Amino acid sequence: MIFADMKTMDAGNLEAGIAFKAGADLISVLGSADGSTVVGAAKTAKAHNKGIVVDLIGVANKAIRAKEARDLGATFVEFHAGLDEQAQPGYNLSGLLRAGEEALVPLFVVGGLNAATIERSRPACGCRRARGRKFYLRSRRPGIRCQATSRRH
Fold first, then answer.
1. pLDDT surpassing 50 at residue 120
2. How confident is residue 117, by pLDDT bands cut at 50, 70 and 90?
3. Which residues contact 18 (CB under 8 A, 6 or more apart)?
4. Which 3 state secondary structure label does DSSP give 48?
5. Parallel, antiparallel, or unpaired: how do β-strands 128-131 and 26-30 relate?
6. Distance from C-alpha of 27 to C-alpha of 15, rounded to nearest angstrom
7. What CATH number was assigned to the domain covering residues 3-86+102-149?
């Protein structure tokens, strides 16, 4: 799977089309983008049998925007804390996990995941988690455990 982390902010239809024609399976659209940008990217994704991830980096109320993003056509929502946010005194992964649990949407969590925190993320993240160059997957099927792969994105 190829995830084009484009962080599209405008012209969702155009940028999604370029990425999907180049071989991407998923693209990212910033959660702070206008709803029409998300809708345009989602329509193009559907036409190509692909998907979009709405990245909530910098969005204040992640749970509310996550629900809106799903309503606008997002395949997944990325609960993202950037490196600068993580460097702030008192940063804690718990805020992202709480927002993910509240939103009840298919999600990625990015920012602060490591070997020590991955287990804490399980209740919030029934679908996928990403960390830097590692991609963590968990099936919704009982008995299938979280696995890490070394795919670069």
1. yes
2. low
3. none
4. coil
5. unpaired
6. 9
7. 3.20.20.70
Residue 48's identity, in one-letter code, is H
Residue 81, both tokens = 């804390």
Q: Which two tokens stand for residue 150?
A: 């070394």
Structure tokens at 38: 């998300």
Both structure tokens of 2: 């190829």
**CA–CA distance, 130 with 119 (Å, rounded to integer):** 13
- How many residues appear in the chain? 153
Q: pLDDT tens digit string along 38-74?
A: 999 999 999 999 999 999 999 999 999 999 999 999 9
Q: Are 97 and 70 spatial neighbours (Cβ–Cβ below 8 Å)?
A: no
Q: Are 97 and 110 in contact (CB under 8 A)?
A: no
Q: Are 55 and 7 in contact (CB under 8 A)?
A: yes
Q: Are strands 147-149 and 134-137 parallel, antiparallel or unpaired?
A: antiparallel
